[in-house]
Amino acid sequence: MLPVLFTAGSFVFYTYGVFVVLALFWFLYLAWKYIRITEHKEEEIFDRIIGSLFIALIVGRVVYVAFHYDTVLQDGALGFFALHLYPGLHQLSAFIAFGLSLVIPRTPHMKHSGSEIVTYLAPALFASFAILSFGGVFAGTDVGLITTFPVRIKYAVYDGLRHVPGLYEGILYFIGALAAHHVILHVRRHKVKKGLVVALLYWFVSFIHVGVAQLRDIVSYQQNAYYQLFDLYLGIVTLLTSLVFIVYYVRSHIVSMFYYLLRPFLRHG
After folding, report:
1. Is the pTM of this model over 0.90?
2. Measured on CA atoms in the order 101, 114, 105, 240, is the torsion positive or negative?
3. Around 258, how many Cα atoms within 13 Å sit in the side-chain half-sphere?
């Protein structure tokens, strides 16, 4: 694992920090590519995206610090902003805040749908999540449990061969990016509702988050049982809530499916 990518004089370039920059770059680039195919002005949409990113950063940092205040704030309130000294961001909270800040209208005369924006951002979000997951693997910040699974690695300061949760996540998010791209093609043909895409996005992210979390080890200053429970329960709540919305959007298809399954019995009766 390579926590520090390289140094230039007094500047230290951390591997995970570099991947964060790459993820942000690819997110903005892909977001621009997909927003261009909509009927809305790019400037207006990007202003809203940047504002939502800022809200997501604040929410994710607040949630993290709330469970690690004794470490982050040990030298005062400025520790909240010292990401280079006390890195930490609750990713699922940040993701939920980002999506909600886009979906919920900010003005009564808004010309574009928040659900539409999130729909077209889905491939960019998945791609950026994949880069962040791979970054955790290279930086050695994402430590898995000891395993006999064929895909396993040896972490520098940990005993035994362990899972590579960041690798699993990255592959799944990459598949999600490809799937989201094809779904958008159906959205443009009005074959898929935008709200359904948003619900599927939340469901898939929370499904990966909850599933892969079971393979992670609790490391360094994140050894906080309440933080782990909050993370797990929030993931489960998001998973179930998004599933309810998915059922709502496909309810007509479910009714049709049951009708065709029961039709022979109904005729017989």
Report:
1. no
2. negative
3. 5
